[in-house]
Design brief:
Blueprint (H helix, E strand, L loop, with lengths): L1 H14 L3 H6 L4 E6 L8 H4 L1 H10 L2 E4 L5 H4 L9 H12 L3 E5 L9 H9 L2 H18 L4 E8 L30 H13 L4 E6 L7 H15 L6 E4 L2 E3 L6 H12 L4 E12 L8 H19 L4 E6 L9 H4 L3 E2 L12 H12 L9 E3 L13 E7 L7 E2 L15 E5 L2 E2 L2 E5 L1 E6 L9 E8 L2 E2 L3 E4 L6 E2 L8 E2 L2 E2 L17 E7 L24 E5 L2 E4 L2 E4 L7 E7 L6 E9 L2 E2 L4 E5 L1
Parallel strand pairs: 1-2, 1-9, 2-3, 3-4, 4-5, 5-6, 6-8, 7-8, 8-9, 22-31
Antiparallel strand pairs: 8-10, 11-12, 12-17, 13-16, 14-15, 14-18, 16-17, 18-19, 18-20, 21-24, 23-24, 24-28, 25-26, 25-29, 27-28, 29-30, 29-31
Helix pairs in contact: 8-9, 11-12, 12-14
Bound molecules: ligand G3I.
Amino acid sequence: MRRFLFILCCTALLSAQTLRQAGAQRALLIGAAADATDANPDPLVKEPLYASTLETQYSMLEPENAMKWASIHPAQTRYNFQPGDELVAFAQAHQMQTRGHNLCWWSYNPAWVTNLAATATPATMASVFQDHINTVVTHYKGQVFAWDVVNEALSDSQPAGGIALKDSIWYNQPGIGATGTGYVEQAFRWAHAADPNALLFYNEYSVEAPGAKFNAMLAMVKDFVARGVPINGVGLQMHIGITGSPSSAGLAQNIQQLTALGLQVHITEMDVKLPVDSSGVASAADLQSQAQTYQRILTVCLQNPGCTAFQTWGFTDKHSWIPGSYPGFGAALPFDASYQAKPAVASMIGAMQTVPPVLNAAALVNAASYKGGAVAPGELVTLFQANYGPGSLVGAQLDSNGLVSSNLAGTQMFFDGIAAPSIYALAGQVSAVVPYGVSSKQQTVVQYEYNGVLSNTATLPVVPSAPAIFALDASGSGPGIVLNQDLSLNTSSNPAAGGSVIAVLATGGGTVQGGATDGALAPGAGNQTLPVTATIGNVTETAVYAGPAPGEVNGVMQVNLTVPTGLTGAQPLILIVGGVSSQSGITVAIK
Ligand code: G3I
């Protein structure tokens, strides 16, 4: 009876999710462009439904106009931060991220700057450009997590194999004195100097489908990445209709080519315009097609873990640029002019609840060293890009048998179908212990699941050991998690004495003599099957004890070592299990 009630409760909860809640389970930011005081009237303040829809349905907002040159820098010596600040404050009050748009555009520049460009030298333009980027990015430092640094720099027609740029005051009229894509590069460098932690994006339209404009953009960002220009991602605007929209395969190919460079992709300005009657109303059939289009594009994004944000250009048909720019068209956004959800909302939530999560074999790594490649029995592993899971962190739990549960809030990892004890689960990152059942095998088939939806499988080699020492700050290197003889934590201010015994915490030691139960808390007895030695500084040590760490889940290995005399300071610490060494870069403090 209780089980029946539980199922009822949670099915109801799932279908009642908002876009924001469904996105949190996909580690996906769900955004909308929003307007504040510079729009007339100011919807954020004057329309309660505007504000309430924005904060319940979205985890990210982007000022549609408030941070553009003409809004934020209306006179050479005057900045107007008020509307942007209003949007940032709203986002912060509702635990949303703010995406900044934009620092450089051929359009929507204030009259003072276009007038200046008519007579100024490139050196003057460069100085004005740098001052603007520095002032705006510094003002929003730590508040805007990602910037569209340059918007729409590319020409609509491109020469074969080349990169043609749009005429603009920043490029060539008169420009800032840089050639080719140099002005774009310069903008990224100045933005990075002002806020080294902000993610920096190049944002463009008509690059969603394969073609010459996409190729030019790819060539530009590839060159930037190769030369270390500080670029983190590309925004694909996605202003489309229900006909002629990019194919799923073409979009997937473009996203894949960008993420293969190590860049993130954000869908930044999606809207799907429809023909409307004189009252702005679209047909029911077109609204269904629109819902399918939103679902299809979002599905492609969900299928590539490098696609990390999905944003629409506004969210209500009451405030949209489409009717003004495309007479006879409108109804382009997920909510209608009365803030009622259109079919697109349910279709997007459905995609987020049902598109299988992606398991990327290269993103499965040792939980202590973050080294990937092969797994060992009992190894604690972390799977990054696990893009379907609980929206907030869920830590390990014991089941009714006292074993570490393999199911955390609906998330499970499997190795050859054996459920692995779960250490924690969070959309985007889950951790588990490789079951001991893989020990006699050459390879293992890995898969994970959330709320009954299974990922693809990946096959990984199995090795007898893959040792790694846990780092104190969980970075994979630096001071290790080491206990001194009095069980206090070894640190630079609490070093171990020569001749004393330290305990090193590690994983990837392989099997234990007599066997170990998956998920059981270790009794602190038994020994690793493979021989364990260590080096501290340049001194080789034989383990005093090497086996399960008492009270920890099986798979966490403790190695007790005698500290050599004659060494002081932070000394390199390496464990060698069955001839395989742990990662370099871990240290122990000796006095
Ligand atoms: O600021 C004035 C305001 O004071 C006045 O009351 C109002 C009356 O019409 O006009 C306001 O300015 C308008 C501004 O939007 C804010 O509403 C401008 O005239 C109008 O040109 C401006 O249009 C925006 C356009 O970019 C130019 O900045 C659109 O809202 C905005 O949706 C559009 O967004 C662009 C992206 O930035 C880049 N990608 C394409 C996308 C669509 O064109």
